[in-house]
Amino acid sequence: MLKKILLLLACATATYNVTAQIGYGYELGAGMSSMRFAPEIGFTKASKKPVFSGKVGGLIDASVTPHFYIQTGVYASLKGQQRNFSFYSSDSLNEQVAQTLHLAYADLPINLTLKTGTQGKGRVIMGIGCTLSYGIGGSNKLRSSGVDSGIAFNREINQSVRPKAPLKAFDIGLNLFAGYELPTGWFFRAYYTAGTNDLGLSTEIDKNRMWGIAAGKLFGKGRNINQEKDDLIDKSE
Prior knowledge:
Elements: H1 2-14, E1 22-38, E2 43-49, E3 51-63, E4 68-90, E5 93-115, E6 123-148, E7 151-160, E8 170-181, E9 186-195, E10 205-219, H2 225-232
Antiparallel strand pairs: 1-3, 1-10, 2-4, 3-4, 4-5, 5-6, 6-7, 6-8, 8-9, 9-10
């Protein structure tokens, strides 16, 4: 599925009309993030909770046809998860772990966007695409307790996230979104991104999930019909 989407986007970009109108703008989103998660082989129990997530960045809005657009840009995003899991072999060897991950990423989204109606008027927007992500930081807070060879232990770790510590850095996400674009250039949309890469090391499974609501504004020819009308007025009169 992801390969087909990438191929479709590549074809659309290759056939892009150089005279097409190109818009630009910014976007801010907030929501929640979680993961498809399974600890290393041997775990006996696991639970998870979402954490706050968000994204902010600049985007380019390039028309391919009057209703189809390629949207891309550069974003910073925050993802992660809270989880609790345990390992139990015997009364003399067991461990309980509580972990909170906050993961910071640099994102490059590439989306094929459908817009109904006419540019410069209110339009329903919806799209599909992918996001290339690379981990640039974050925090890993981990607390473990239990018994090892009959000796009780209690450990706390608070470390910065680095490539392969505790997860792989590169991710590819599948994007889905839908919303509305106003004649003023403002737009609002609900979004969902599902990571397709397993970021876990060894036998652990970790796949990002992020969803939320975003707002932004587009500039450029035809993106703000009200402003363009104002600019045509001779203010000297």
